[in-house]
Amino acid sequence: MIRVAALCLLAGAAQGDPMLLAAASTGAALDAAIEQSGIAALTSYGASGLLARQIEQGAPADLFVSANPKWMDHLVDAGLVEGDAVRVLMSNRLVLIAPSGSRVTADTLATALEGEVFAMADPETAPVGAYGKAALESLGLWDEVAPAFVPMRNTLATVAAVAQGEAALGLVYASDAAGQPGIAVVWQIPEDSHPPIRYLVAPVAQGDDPEGASALMAFLVSPAGQAVLAAQGFVTLPATLPAEGS
Q1: What is the pLDDT of residues 195-233, one digit of tens each?
Q2: What is the CATH topology of the domain spanning 94-193?
Q3: Contacting residues for 126 by C-beta, under 8 A, at least 6 apart
Q4: pTM for this one?
């Protein structure tokens, strides 16, 4: 019922402007980029997998931004996205956060988590959780945090849990931690400890304004668009970089 309701909502929203469906973690950054572009656009943010399924079910969409490459590949395999049109829009970093004033470091994780909670989005359902678990396993730290691990719905819930003192530590994207009150970044996770983080963007021919979508995508990958995304805490990449495997 939830998916049907969301699909109907999207169907009623498309009124001639390009429709952008994008991962929830990109919402603030894409809103800022759209405002800077001057292009009128409709947006719907949510889990990449849910949005991909909505597109597959016929939801109107001109652009899709996925935080998980497998869902873009899914739409390519379904013939709904042209593989050659997929581009890497931006990247991100993983960071460990703690309540403001904390002095926790990677070397004191186990001590800091004694009787406490380690918050992170569920690795089974959220890309950030999967990246985070892979990083902690690679660094030999997963066994230290696993006893205290409580899966969160998403990174917003993780940030809230740490800011409110409900969790002693959390792992999130750097963009989710940027400028958030009540938390401090205590450690930047080494980038070589996990698979590359890639947000993919591609046109989808199910909306009402393919020309507007083309203009918006062109802005997002332009230097001006990339500067807006970088200001929101994302890591920008060469605009012409094709998506591996797509």
Answers
A1: 999 999 999 988 889 999 999 999 999 999 999 999 999
A2: D-Maltodextrin-Binding Protein; domain 2 (3.40.190)
A3: 47, 154, 155
A4: 0.80
